[in-house]
Design goal:
This protein is an alpha+beta fold and 366 residues long. The chain contains ten helices and 19 strands. 33% of the residues lie in helices and 36% in strands. Strand 8 and strand 9 form a beta hairpin. Helix 5 packs across helix 7 and helix 8 packs across helix 9.
Length: 366
């Protein structure tokens, strides 16, 4: 005989020649020499090489065990003392009852939505994340949810989680802020075949998420084409000179034309604008020559206008001097003064009037 001690928190299974005999709990036991005791920790999962079906035939042992069966489409969250510990996948698991407060929370992963009451903090736990699909929708976005490629609902900003299984889940997101689309360097022909390049932009917002994503493919590209066609139509209807005169109205014309067709895209055009109109190639040189010629013509007109005004002023002065001898003499002295400014030294005699002598000096003898 031999004595065996089972400590608190432990349990022993007695075997004789590898055949299960009985279970013994805390205390001292006398056993035969040919009997073997295998000791297990009550806080641990019960794991033994003996078939569980054999052990469960002992009603005493069966009452001490808790069997957790996890199917293929399930997982089980294991909690100890109300704290999450780990996840059980498909299979059968055996635990000791009573000694440790242990709970098992079964989850059906064949569903799409996570309806179980699981603490959100666990969704970032590495043991659980591999079973979950996570999608982020920003505060300024909306998204359509497709389950097995079928539209289900529209999602607003937030974090969305779904069980990972054979069901296909997709989301398509749209930026709901005011957006801007650029048409840069668009080359167009005017009515008189002049080649120009236009940089254009439009500001828009998505107003119908479902229509934009589900009923249209690449709605932004379609908006680009609408703007491109509207520009081509407008520019092609005018000659270069007419277009340059009306370039401020290009934005208005394109806006009105594009706005008629954007409702089917699920978007709203807010504003259109033109950055610049660029002349290309020889046309730029020709227009520069025309501009220079125009400026020269304007300069000639201004010069002729000033000459005419000056001549008219001289004529009026002459008429006044003809009728006023004193005014004539004053004007004569004014010119003498101007001429004297150009001469370094003048010598005058003391036998006559100074003005008369100056006059004689500057008068050409005939």
């Amino acid at each position: 005989m031999k004595i065996v001690r089972i400590n608190k928190g432990k349990v022993g299974l007695v075997f004789k020649k590898d055949d299960y005999q009985k279970v013994i709990t805390e205390g001292n036991y006398w056993l035969f020499l040919n009997q073997e005791v295998r000791i297990y920790d009550l806080t641990k999962q019960f794991d033994t090489a003996v078939a569980i079906e054999i052990l469960l035939k002992d009603s005493t042992l069966a009452a001490m065990l808790e069997i957790v069966e996890v199917k293929d489409n399930e997982i089980v969250l294991v909690y100890e003392r109300n704290n999450f510990k780990y996840v059980l996948e498909a299979g059968n698991y055996v635990y000791w009852k009573g000694f440790l407060d242990r709970k098992f929370y079964k989850v059906d992963r064949s569903k799409v939505y996570i309806t179980e009451n699981i603490d959100k903090a666990l969704f970032s736990n590495n043991q659980l994340t591999k079973y979950i699909r996570t999608f982020e929708v920003a505060a300024y976005e909306k998204a359509v949810l497709l389950v097995d490629d079928v539209y289900t609902k529209t999602l607003i900003g937030g974090t969305y989680r779904f069980w990972k299984n054979d069901t296909t889940i997709k989301i398509a997101k749209v930026d709901m802020r005011q957006l801007q689309l650029e048409i840069a360097g668009q080359e167009l022909l005017t009515k008189d075949k002049a080649n120009i390049r236009i940089n254009f932009y439009t500001q828009y917002k998505v107003t119908n998420v479902e229509k934009a994503l589900l009923e249209n493919k690449d709605y932004e590209k379609q908006l680009y084409i609408l703007m491109q066609l509207a520009l081509r139509s407008y520019v092609g209807a005018y000659t270069l000179d007419e277009l340059l005169e009306k370039k401020e109205s290009i934005a208005t014309a394109v806006f009105e034309d594009v706005a008629k067709n954007t409702n089917q895209l699920g978007i709203q055009v807010i504003n259109c604008g033109i950055r610049d109109v660029i002349l290309t190639g020889d046309m730029k040189e020709i227009m520069n020559q025309v501009l220079i010629a125009q400026k020269r013509a304007q300069a000639n007109i201004i010069t002729r206008r000033e000459e005419t005004a000056s001549t008219r002023s001289l004529l009026n002065t002459a008429k006044l001097m003809e009728n006023n001898e004193m005014l004539f003499k004053l004007k004569e002295m004014e010119y003498v003064e101007k001429i004297a400014d150009k001469i370094g030294e003048i010598t005058l005699g003391g036998n006559g009037n100074m003005v008369k002598q100056l006059k004689e000096i500057f008068t050409v003898n005939k």
